[in-house]
Amino acid sequence: MAFSTSASPPVECSVVCHDNWAKKVFEPVIRRLPRDASKTVTISKDSYLILSVISAGMNAGTGVMELTSPLALAGIPIFFITTYYSDFILVPTKDRQTVVQALLCRGFEFSEDESAFVSPTAHVRGGSVSSQPPSTPPPSNVAELQTRTFELLKKRDVVPFIEEGLTVVLCSGKDLEQEQLNHFSRRPTPSRRATGNGTNGGHARRSWLDNVDTKLYTSLISVLVLQPRFLSMTLAQEDPPSLLLDKTQLSVFGDSLVGDVEGDLVPIFLDLENLPIEATGIVSGVAGRLVAEMRMNETGDGEQLSYLSTARAGAVILSGEQSLKALEVMKPLLSKE
C-alpha cells in the first residue's frame, strides 16, 4: 500500500490511500462538512491497483515511458507518482487482466513467486492484481499516442506553466539504521533508485517506521502550517518516507532528510481539471514527446525527468534548464494560433 498526498498550484490537495481509509476516515468527515464545502471534495468511484517500479539500467525518462506506454496503448488510464526510491503507477483494479497482458506482451515476466513483474531493465512489484474495453480504440503506436495526447490537451485548452520562483527537491526521510551502516562502512548516502525490492546493500528493512527519524513528522506539521507552494509526500511499506518539496521549506526539516538538497528541479504544471479522470496516455504521451524532441536519451538528461499525477493536474519535473527547453517544445504543440 502507498499513501501519498500532494498539493500543487493553484490550490489542490490529492490523497492516495487504501480504500478502507477513504470509506472509514474521509467519507464520514466529508458528510459532516457544510454543503458548499462538501461539493469541493470528491472520492474516486474506482479502486486502483498499485504497481511499484524500481528502475535499473535505464534513466528515469525511459523508465516512465517503458512502463506507461504499453498501458496507454491498451487504453488504460493511470496515475503516476515519483518518489525518492521508487515510482508508483496506479491503474484501475477493474483493468487488472488487461494490465497483466499488456505488460507480458511487452516482455515483462512474472517473478518466481508471481508477486512481481520483472523485465531486464526494471522491477515492478504489484499490489493485489473483468477487464472492460476502452471507450474509444487505443492508438496503434507510440507516435500516434503522443499525437493524440497533445491534440486532447490542446482541445481542452491545457496550457503548460511554471510557477515563478518555485524550485523543488526530491528527498527521503533519514533511515537511522542505514545512517549507522554508512558511518561504519563509510558508504555514501544512497541516491534515488539505489536500492531494489526494499533492500539496501543486502540488508532487509523491517519497516521504515522502525528506523525513520521522527523529527521528520514534526517538521512536516510545521511546513503544512506555513502552507507551502508545493508538497508531495509518499509513505510506502517498503521504502522510507519520500518528499518532493518546495526548496524554500527545506531548512524546516533540518538534518532529518537525505537527498540532493542542492538540486534545482522545476515542475511544469498541466491543469487537467477539464479532462475526464479516465483520460489515457497523458503521462506517456507528454513524457515520450519531451524525451524524443529534446533527445534526452542521447544526452542522458532523461535521468532527471520525473512525473507526478494528482487528481486535477500533472507535473513534469525537470532541471531548471531543461524545464525551459521543455516549455519551448510543448507550447507550440498546444497553441491554437
Describe the structure.
By secondary structure, the chain is an alpha+beta fold. It has helices at residues 19-32, 35-38, 60-73, 96-105, 142-155, 176-185, 208-211, 215-225, 282-293, 296-299, 320-334; strands spanning 2-7, 13-16, 48-55, 79-82, 87-92, 109-110, 116-118, 122-126, 168-173, 199-200, 203-204, 231-236, 239-246, 257-259, 265-271, 306-309, 313-319. 33% of the residues lie in helices and 25% in strands. Helix 3 packs across helix 9 and helix 5 (142-155) crosses helix 9.
Summed up:
This is CASTOR ACT domain-containing protein. The chain has 337 residues and is an alpha+beta fold.
Strand content: 15-25%
Average pLDDT score: 77
What gap, in angstroms, lies between the N and C termini? 45 Å
Question: Total number of helical segments?
Answer: 11
Order of strands, widest sheet: 2-1-12-13-9-14
Largest sheet: 6 strands, antiparallel
- Percent range of helical residues: 25-40%
Q: Write down how many β-strands occur, each being a DSSP E stretch of 2 or more residues.
A: 17
- Quaternary state, please? single chain
Global Rg: 19 Å
- Based on secondary structure, the structural category is alpha+beta
Unreliable spans: 128-135, 183-205
Global morphology: globular
N-to-C SSE string, H for helix and E for strand: EEHHEHEEHEEEHEHEEHHEEEEHHEEH
